[in-house]
């Protein structure tokens, strides 16, 4: 199996961590800038990452990929079968993918991706607004629900934890101060310390020169 795209993307990181939690061996291919892999373009015709290939099956979008992995490789189960908890898992993934990444991505792009990898000046005003106005309500909400058990659903690792924790990898690379949200920090630090995430984050940190 191949996942296309840099794990600095929370969507790619989520997909890789999800596969790792299932015990699956996945190759991560990252194209050189301006030189997309033809196989990636077949899997993702609109060049959105991650792209994915399993034999002759190709698809893109992290939600589509983890849905496939859950159905094709059902053990261990990472998307709850209980209707309410399945709905909650979908909710947490949507919260992470849209609202959370929408805010954190503005900071990460303007302070790291644009200046370091695209040769463009970051818009610090946009990054600062996201940091000061958009991120706090999200983190306040997570602080209010941070689980004492260590997991959001069913007292075990699920897609909910994987999706929510993934963007925190970018906040870690940014040196984002989470001292106002100690329960959230403790919860996400524990998830990111799992082997499924730790190996990915170590590789990213080395790449970024941290």
* Main beta sheet strand tally, sense and closure: 4 strands, mixed
Q: State mean pLDDT (0 to 100 scale).
A: 96
Shape: globular
Please give the share of residues in helix. 55-70%
Instruction: Name the strands of the widest sheet in spatial order.
Output: 2-1-3-4
CATH class of the largest domain: Mainly Alpha
Count of helical regions? 8
Q: Structural class, from secondary structure content?
A: alpha+beta
Residue windows where pLDDT falls under 50 for at least 5 positions: none
Q: Your description of this structure?
A:
This protein has 210 residues and is an alpha+beta fold. It has two domains: 2-72, 3-Layer(aba) Sandwich (Glutaredoxin), CATH 3.40.30; 83-208, Glutathione S-transferase Yfyf (Class Pi), Chain A, domain 2 (Up-down Bundle), CATH 1.20.1050.10. It has a four-stranded mixed sheet with strand order 2-1-3-4. Helix 1 packs antiparallel against helix 8 (195-208), helix 4 (83-118) runs parallel beside helix 6 and helix 6 (159-174) crosses helix 7 (182-192). The mean pLDDT is 96. It contains eight helices and four strands; from the N terminus they run βαβαββαααααα. Helix 1 links the parallel strand 1 (2-4) and strand 2 (27-29). The protein starts with a strand and ends with a helix. The chain has helices spanning 10-21, 38-43, 62-72, 83-118, 124-145, 159-174, 182-192, 195-208, and strands at residues 2-4, 27-29, 51-54, 57-60.
């Amino acid at each position: 199996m191949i996942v296309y795209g840099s794990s600095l993307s929370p969507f790619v990181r989520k997909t890789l961590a999800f596969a790792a939690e299932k015990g699956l061996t996945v190759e991560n291919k990252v194209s050189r800038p301006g030189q997309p892999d033809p196989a990636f373009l077949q899997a993702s015709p609109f060049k959105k990452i991650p792209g994915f290939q399993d034999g002759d099956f190709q698809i893109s979008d992290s939600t589509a990929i983890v849905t496939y992995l859950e159905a094709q490789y059902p053990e261990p189960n990472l998307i709850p079968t209980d209707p309410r908890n399945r709905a909650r898992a979908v909710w947490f993934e949507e919260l992470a993918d849209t609202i959370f990444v929408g805010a954190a991505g503005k900071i990460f792009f303007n302070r790291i991706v644009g200046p370091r990898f695209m040769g463009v000046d970051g818009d610090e005003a946009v990054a600062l607004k996201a940091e000061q106005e958009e991120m706090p309500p999200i983190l306040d909400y997570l602080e209010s629900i941070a689980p004492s058990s260590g997991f959001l659903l069913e007292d075990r690792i699920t897609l909910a934890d994987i999706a929510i924790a993934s963007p925190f990898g970018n906040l870690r690379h940014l040196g984002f101060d989470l001292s106002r949200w100690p329960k959230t920090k403790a919860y996400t630090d524990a998830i990111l310390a799992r082997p499924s995430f730790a190996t990915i984050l170590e590789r990213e940190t080395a790449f970024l020169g941290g």
